[in-house]
Amino acid sequence: MIIAKETVTLIHTDTKIHGLPETELYESLSDDEKTRAGRIHAASERQNFIVRRGILRSLLGTTFGIEPFRIRFAATPVGKPFVAFPGNSGIFFNLSHSGNDIVYAFSGHPETGIDIERIRTLEDIDELARNYFSAEEYAILMNQPGWKKNNAFIRIWSLKEALIKASGWPLEQGLAAFDVAAYCQMNRFELPFGDIHTFTCIAPVFDYICGFATALAIRLDRNEPLNIKRYSLQGGQFFEL
């Protein structure tokens, strides 16, 4: 499987079923990543870090035709990572993880964001929504029956996270910048941003993953179609969905 600029490639896996040799994934990491891994005390969290970074490098190395350890990453001033070497590759990426599950997005557009959130019970859900949601989003949440409130909150949060990551805005500004109240029940919508930009949003992007909310946000060129390919990585094999 080769990632192409003309396609939005979405990949889901988890650290228990990916099936790639973890020794090779570790050896593909940069010295800085190996140091970061060594500082993680919990074995499961350390393994998750190695796997998600190693898979990212493996995918990009295959695409660029170079050894994965040669890839170098940098970050924008607000911390959004991008490929620094090889330069001018035209491939941009974003990833998200929740527990053992990992999702990746690759495209020819720098403004691409993906998010995955495990649906779980949140004790402070009202306070979080009051602090980070618009008045309209908060009203939608408060009108949900108690048993639906967590699902609704995490779906809205996942959409907003994907939009923040696509736009490159800082978290504290981005949550307020995007209001998805009018769209949060839609599987796909166009969200205006500023005077001239529009983000295309899809949620869920992996509807087979039970117990999780997933969302994609991307800013396409004018009149450009959204060409998505979805894959599940299991046992070292990519299965197109």
TrEMBL record:
Q: Can you tell which superkingdom this protein's organism belongs to?
A: Bacteria
**Residue ranges annotated for the 4'-phosphopantetheinyl transferase N-terminal domain, each copy included:** 27-105
The segment(s) forming the 4'-phosphopantetheinyl transferase domain are 113-179
**A GO molecular function held by the record:** holo-[acyl-carrier-protein] synthase activity
Biological processes per GO annotation: lysine biosynthetic process via aminoadipic acid
SUPFAM superfamilies according to UniProt: 4'-phosphopantetheinyl transferase
Cite the entry's keywords alphabetically.
Transferase
InterPro entries referenced in this protein's UniProt entry, alphabetically:
4-PPantetheinyl_Trfase_dom, 4-PPantetheinyl_Trfase_dom_sf, AASDHPPT_N, P-Pant_transferase_sf
Instruction: Tell me which family the UniProt entry assigns to this protein.
Output: Belongs to the P-Pant transferase superfamily. Gsp/Sfp/HetI/AcpT family.
Name of the protein in question: 4'-phosphopantetheinyl transferase
Which source organism does the UniProt entry give? Chlorobium phaeobacteroides (strain DSM 266 / SMG 266 / 2430)
